């Protein structure tokens, strides 16, 4: 697809048009903490922030109701939570965050047993990815097959001194760009400038040594490695909650034997209770 230029000063009017038709989530900073929140017309996203929390929770909700149940003399009645049809845009997420959804898709969009709530939201959510003009010292996308200028999501964009080079990557992205007002064609120089930025940012990042799958496999039975790692762990679960690709969940009922609601919520393998089985047996107690 072709690259275009969104003129300087036009990004907010585009966002405002999107806000009129979609639920738009973008990076927002509040008292030094940043995350993706739904924005209103006129609200400028914090594009410079590398958010503390990924946008995972917009599609894979931290807690959500799956169904309600009621039991009486006629049997059990189940009412499923209604389908969500709100069209959503996640605007200004970084290529690594956009790419992370391809991993949460694996369990939740399984062709045999998809998770309906995730699948509905994924279908109704478009991703507008903002390429990175600089990297943080914690960035490592290039070590795991990504790139600061990776074209991933529905629309890709990069800041070129206030103007934005933009490209629709999917049909949904083309629809979004139709609301962006007048766009000019990107020149060869614009494309070369974007490529240079991507290469410069990539070159500024440290390359991590990623162990082979075999080496990782071997770690599973390396008792000393796990003892050393867990000695420092408080079992708070925060690392799995901020991770964009951790997808464990738990299902709990809130109610009585006669009626109640069933919820699905994030779980964490770092919780001590994670392995506890029915009857109370927990293999972790033996370590
Ligand atoms: S430079 Fe790479 S790791 Fe850092 S925010 Fe951008 S895409 Fe993510
Ligand atoms: S659960 Fe994760 S964040 Fe919490 S202490 Fe353990 S390693 Fe650290």
UniProtKB/TrEMBL annotation:
<keyword id="KW-0408">Iron</keyword>
<dbReference type="InterPro" id="IPR017900">
    <property type="entry name" value="4Fe4S_Fe_S_CS"/>
</dbReference>
<keyword id="KW-0411">Iron-sulfur</keyword>
<keyword id="KW-0479">Metal-binding</keyword>
<dbReference type="Pfam" id="PF17179">
    <property type="entry name" value="Fer4_22"/>
</dbReference>
<dbReference type="InterPro" id="IPR017896">
    <property type="entry name" value="4Fe4S_Fe-S-bd"/>
</dbReference>
<feature type="domain" description="4Fe-4S ferredoxin-type">
    <location>
        <begin position="223"/>
        <end position="254"/>
    </location>
</feature>
<dbReference type="GO" id="GO:0046872">
    <property type="term" value="F:metal ion binding"/>
</dbReference>
<dbReference type="GO" id="GO:0051536">
    <property type="term" value="F:iron-sulfur cluster binding"/>
</dbReference>
<protein>
    <recommendedName>
        <fullName>4Fe-4S ferredoxin-type domain-containing protein</fullName>
    </recommendedName>
</protein>
């Amino acid at each position: 697809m072709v690259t275009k230029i969104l003129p300087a000063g036009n990004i907010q009017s585009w966002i405002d048009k999107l806000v009129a038709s979609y639920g738009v989530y973008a990076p927002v900073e509040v008292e030094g903490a940043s995350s993706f929140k739904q924005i209103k017309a006129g609200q400028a996203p914090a594009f410079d922030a590398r958010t503390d929390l990924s946008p995972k929770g917009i599609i894979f909700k931290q807690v959500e109701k799956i169904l309600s149940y009621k039991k009486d003399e006629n049997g059990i009645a189940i009412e499923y939570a209604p389908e969500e049809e709100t069209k959503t845009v996640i605007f200004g997420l970084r290529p690594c965050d956009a790419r992370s959804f391809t991993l949460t898709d694996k369990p939740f969009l399984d062709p045999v047993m998809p998770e309906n709530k995730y699948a509905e939201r994924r279908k109704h959510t478009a991703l507008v990815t903002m390429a990175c003009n600089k990297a943080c010292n914690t960035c490592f996308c290039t070590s795991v097959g990504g790139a600061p200028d990776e074209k991933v999501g529905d629309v890709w964009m990069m800041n070129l001194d206030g103007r934005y080079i933009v490209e629709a990557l999917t049909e949904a992205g083309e629809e979004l760009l139709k609301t962006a007002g007048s766009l000019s064609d990107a020149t060869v120089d614009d494309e070369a400038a974007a490529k240079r930025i991507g290469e410069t940012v990539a070159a500024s990042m440290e390359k991590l040594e990623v162990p082979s799958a075999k080496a990782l496999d071997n770690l599973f039975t390396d008792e000393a490695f796990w003892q050393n790692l867990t000695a420092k762990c408080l079992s708070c679960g925060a690392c799995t909650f901020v991770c964009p690709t951790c997808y464990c969940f738990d299902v709990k009922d809130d109610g009585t034997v006669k009626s109640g609601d069933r919820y699905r919520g994030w779980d964490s393998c770092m919780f001590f209770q994670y392995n506890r089985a029915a009857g109370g047996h927990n293999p972790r107690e033996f370590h």
